Amino acid sequence: MSGVFPAPSSVPFWGIPAAIISSGISKIHNAVNNIRPSKRAQRAAYRGLLDQHRYQSFAPQRDGNTVKWFVDGHDYMWAISEVLEAAKTQIFILDWWLSPEVYLRRPPELFQNWRLDDLLKRKADEGVKIYIIVYQEIPENDSMDSAHTVKALEALSPNIFVMRHPSHDIFSPESVYFWSHHEKLVIVDNRYVALGGLDLCFGRWDTHNHYLADAHPTQFNRTLFPGQDYNNSRVLDFQKVQHFVFNQLSTLKTGRMSWHDIHVMLVGPSGQDAVLHFAERWNFIKGQKYANEPRYLYLPIPTTTSTAESIVSGDPALYEYLSKDTPQLVATSPSTNTPAASGDPTTQMQPTCRVQFCRSASEWSHGVIPTEQSIQNAYIQLIKEAKHFIYIENQFFISATESGGSIVNLVAQALRDRILQAASAKEKFKVIVMIPEVPGFPGTIRDTKTLQIIMGAQWRTINRAGDSIMEQVAAKGFDPKEYISFYHLRSYDRINGPPSFLSKIREQTKLDYEQAQAALDRIWLGRADAEYIKDGVNIYEPDRQLTTADPTKVRRWSIPKTVEEAMAILKKYESASSPSDKLVADSVASHALREDKPLVDERWLGTPGEEKDCFVTELTYIHTKVMIVDDQKVIIGSANLNDRSLKGDGDSEIAVVIEDTDIIESQMDGKPYQAARFAATLRRQLFKEHLGLIPPQNATPSDASQVTNAMTPVPSPPDDTTHSPEDKLVQDPLSEEFLSLWNGTAKNNTSILLDIFKTVPNNQVHNWTQYSDYVPKVAPGHVATDLSVEEIKKRLDEVRGHIVEGGINFLNEEQGLVTGFTFSKYNPLLPLWV
C-alpha cells in the first residue's frame, strides 16, 4: 500500500497528479452500491492502512507544511475570503452548518460583495467548480435548515453542487438519527486547507472584543451582526434561518452571545490528506444517496493499477470499477496572484511544520470499516507524552477514567494517569482547561434537562460521582487543584439604547427604532419576494424572570416593500441625530482589553438609570477544540472532548496534529526552554486575550479596512510579538508570576461580575434552594445590584479580559444531577448528549 501516499519530501503537494491525490481505499466504499466486494477484504485493507500510521490514522505524518493559526472569526473569515476570491479551479467545503448569507467581512455596509453566497457565485461564474457537503439535520432538533442552504446555493450557478447527508428516511437502511457530520473544512485549488472550529454560518464571526451589543440608533451603517447573525443561543436558538435578515431578538433588550473559536490554515504536503478525506466523503455520499442523480459526479479515483490491485485484493469487479474513466480533480500549481504568493517572499512563513491529519470516521459517516478514532488516540498519546504542561480549550469536557462505563472515550483516564505520575514523582505539572460556563442551549439550568445532563456528565468527569479526575487524584493522597484547574470566559457590554433618547427620535420622526431596524433588514435583503415582505419581522421579548425569550411574547414589524422605501425610512430616522449622538460608543466591550480611556469617561445620552439598565453580561461561548502540550505540540480541529466526537462511530470529525520545527527561546518553570513557534505563539495569544493584555480589535467603518497580518492567509506571517512585554508575562505557564496573574485575574473578574450581575453557575450556589434564592428576577444578563451606575462602571473597568473561575462546585450538593439511570450505559438516549 505504499503507492497510496507519496513520500512527504518527494513531491510538493501542488504538483501531485490528480490520480495520486485520492487513494483506492475510498473507492472500495464508494463502489458498495454498484458492486459488492468482500467485506473482509475491505476491513483488512483499511486496517492495514491505519496500522501503518501513528494514532492509527488514515494519514501519515508529513513534513514541510506551512501552518497559520487564527483566533476568533474576524481574522479567519477575512483570510478565507481572500483565499476563496483567489480560487482558480475548485472549492471544497465540508460544514456542519453553512449559511449562504453570512458576511465574511464586516461591517456589511462596507463589504456588501463579501457575503458568502455572492462570493461563491462570483467564482462559479468564472468557471470554478464548487463542491459542498453539509449535515442534513433533523428539523425537530436543529434549526440550520440545510435544505435552504442547498436551494439558495445551487440556484446561483450550475457550477455549484451541494450534498446533504445523512438520510432520515425511516424506510432507508442508511438512515442515521443520532449523529452528525461535524467537520469544518475548506479546501481551495487542492492547495489551501482550512480547518478548526468555525463553520461558515451565522453566529460565528466575532472579534477579540467579544461584543454583546450591536444597537446603533443614529449610525446604522456600523451594524456588525445583521439579521439572524445577532443571536444568543442561551436565550433563543436560531429561528427560520431561511428568513436570514430578520432579527429574532431585540438588540435593545438582549445582549448577543459572543463566540470564541480557533481555526488553522495550511499549505503543503498534508493538504493531500484533506483532499482525500473530502473526496472519500463526497464519493461515499454520491454512491449512497445520489447514485441516480447524474448532476453529481464522482470525484477522483486512482488510475495506477498497482494501487488499485493491491487494495482490492484481486476482486475483478472492483478492480474494473476503480480503473474505469471517471472525472478527475484538477491539480493546481502555485499562482503568482494567489493571496499567499503576494508580498516579499523573504518575510513569508516557512514550511517548518510536521502535520498529521486524524479523524473520526465510520461506516455510517464515511463508508469505512473498521471505525477510525485516531483523534481520540492522538489526544491520549499526546497527554501521555506531556512533560510539563497541557492547555485544553473545548466546547465540552466529557470523558471517563475507567473503561466499561457509559462514557467510552478515555481522555480523562490519560489525564488522571499523567497527573498521578507527576504527583508521585513530585514533578511540577499543570493542566489548564477552558470550557463554557453553560452549554449553548436555551433555558434555565433549573428547568432544562438537556443542560443538566451535559453539565452533570462534565461534573462526573471533573470532580463528582466517584470516578472523576479530581476525586481519583485525591484518593491517592494528592491535592488535585495543584495539578488541574478549570476556567470559563464571560463578557460585559453596554447597549446603546436609552429609552428617553429613542423617545425623542420617535417624536421627531414618528418612527420606532424597530421600524428603522426593519428598514435596514430590507436593505440587507436586497431583492425580496412577497413571502419575506408579508411575514415581517418577529422580535421575541425576554422574560424578566427567566434566562430565555418567550416565543409567545412577539412584536411584529412590517418590512418596507422596496429598498428605496427602506432607505427613505433610515434617512428620516437618522436625521433626528446630532453630532453629540455620534460621540456615544455603541459598545464598551473594548474596555476589557487594553483600552486607552476609562469606562467612566464613556458618554451617555440617557438617564443614569437607563444606562444602568443597558449594561449586560453573557458568557463568551468557548467553541474551540484545541490542546497544546508543552508549547511543542498542538491538536486542533472540529472534535469536541466528548463521546460523540471521539468514539469514531458517532459524529464525523477532522483534526490535525502540528509539530513546528521552528524553535524559539522561552521559559518553562523558570528555566530556559526551547518551544515550538506555532504552539507557543498560539498559546500566548490565547492567554493574552483571556487576560486582557491585547489592544481592542474594533470593527467600525474606520477600522475595518485596515488589514492586519493576523487577517491574511498563509504564508503571510502574523506579527512577531514573542519579545513584547505582554508575551513575557505569559511565556512561562509554570512560573509563580504567571499563575498569580492568571488566577488573580480570574478571581477578580469573577468577583466583580457576580456582584453586579449575579450569574450562574458559580461556586457560591450549592443546592436548588440556594439557586432559587440567588438567581435574580431580571431580564437575561442585566444588572442585579443596587450599586449606582457610576460605581458599576468603576468596578467593571477593573475587569481584565474575559477569564473567570470555573464553577465546578456549582450545585455540588445535588447528587441527583450526577447519579442515577440518566448516566447508565443502559440509557439508550444518553449518547445523544455526551
How would you describe what is shown here?
- With 834 residues, the chain is α+β, with helices and mostly antiparallel strands.
- Among the domains are: 1-65 and 299-333 and 356-370, no CATH class; 220-254 and 497-583, no CATH class; 371-493 and 621-704 and 722-817, Endonuclease, Chain A (2-Layer Sandwich), CATH 3.30.870.10.
- The protein has 26 helices and 23 strands.
- The strands form four sheets. It has a 17-stranded mixed beta sheet that branches.
- Strand 21 and strand 22 form a beta hairpin.
- The protein is globular and about 75 Å long.
- The model is unreliable at 1-36 and 302-338 (pLDDT under 50).
- This is Phospholipase.
- Keywords: Hydrolase, Lipid degradation, Lipid metabolism, Repeat.
- One of its GO terms (molecular function) is phospholipase D activity.
Mean pLDDT: 87
- Strand proportion, as a percent range, falls in 15-25%
The rounded distance between the terminal residues' Cα atoms is: 36 Å
Instruction: State the name of the first-level CATH class of the domain at 371-493 and 621-704 and 722-817.
Output: Alpha Beta
What gyration radius follows from the Cα positions, in whole Å? 26 Å
CATH-defined fold name of the domain at 371-493 and 621-704 and 722-817: Endonuclease, Chain A
Number of strands: 23
Quaternary state reads: single chain
Number of H- or I-type helical stretches:
26
CATH superfamily of the domain at 371-493 and 621-704 and 722-817: Endonuclease Chain A
Query: What is the second-level CATH architecture of the domain at 371-493 and 621-704 and 722-817?
Result: 2-Layer Sandwich
Biggest pleated-sheet summary: 17 strands, mixed
Shape label: globular
Low-confidence stretches: 1-36, 302-338
- Measured as a percent range, the helix fraction is 25-40%
Helix vs. strand class = alpha+beta
